[in-house]
Amino acid sequence: MKSTLSIIAVLASAASSLAQNITIPATNGSLPKAGANGCAPGYYPGTDTVIFTVPYTYQQVLLIIGNYTNLTWSGSPDNSVTTNNSQALVANNWTPGSARFYDIAGAHVIETITTYSKPANGPYVEIHTVAPLSIPSVNVSFYSDFDGQVWKPICNGAATWSNFTINFCATNATTAASVLHQLHTTDAMTVGTFLGGKNFTSCGVLAGGNGTVTPSAFGGANGTAASGPSATASPIAYTGDAVGRHGLIA
């Protein structure tokens, strides 16, 4: 549980330190002004969390997720994602204000980094906004001021635990949560598939993985996703609006 709380604290700290002067790309990239419910008129607040573990090292996972404009693991073809930060493409060093642009499922997506950290030994922390978009196939529109993911080595480094949490405003919060949960679950599973397709069962069966980390302390450790209050780990709780507030608590 200590490890679970520490990773929640990482995201909470990142959220509390978000810079207020980050420039969101002006071309359809800005977020609407919040109304009484914390969302623009016609939008309603929601949140979703997916927790997933893959039986591969953090360094292996970084090879898949470690480039902000490479989203092949999230369904975008190679070289289909563009950015407003051409300098970051050379060093693969992404900073707040860096945005990526791509199209998927009939939606044009603009995501702008607010927090980005990629230390060699983890955890990987990425938080970005999502500009308003529509998914015609399910007749829903949404946007987010907090779409975060963390990847953290566990089992003495033999496996990697991930947490995807998004706070959003949507025209139909239930539909949006379902779409986002499926998307993030598929993303996490695809990372494992790209690395060999093995399923995580426990630390004990992994080489060098009989350490002090208890898999059940990380919800979804058996290769299934966990969301909301049903998660066996404490999910990152949503306590604020999807615009202007970042509702993470430790």
Question: What is the fold's blueprint, element by element?
Answer:
Layout (H helix, E strand, L loop, with lengths): L1 H15 L27 E11 L3 H8 L16 E2 L2 H6 L7 E6 L2 E11 L6 E12 L4 E15 L4 E12 L2 H22 L56
Antiparallel strand pairs: 1-7, 2-3, 3-4, 4-5, 5-6, 6-7
Structural commentary:
This protein is α+β, with helices and mostly antiparallel strands and 250 residues long. It has a 7-stranded antiparallel β-sheet with strand order 1-7-6-5-4-3-2, sandwiched between helices. The protein has helices at 2-16, 58-65, 86-91, 173-194; strands at residues 44-54, 82-83, 99-104, 107-117, 124-135, 140-154, 159-170. The chain has a single domain (2-230), classed as Alpha-D-Glucose-1,6-Bisphosphate, Chain A, domain 4 (2-Layer Sandwich). The longest helix is centred in the C-terminal third of the chain and has 22 residues, at 173-194. It comes from Friedmanniomyces endolithicus. This is F5/8 type C domain-containing protein. Residues 1-19 form the signal peptide. Keywords: Signal.
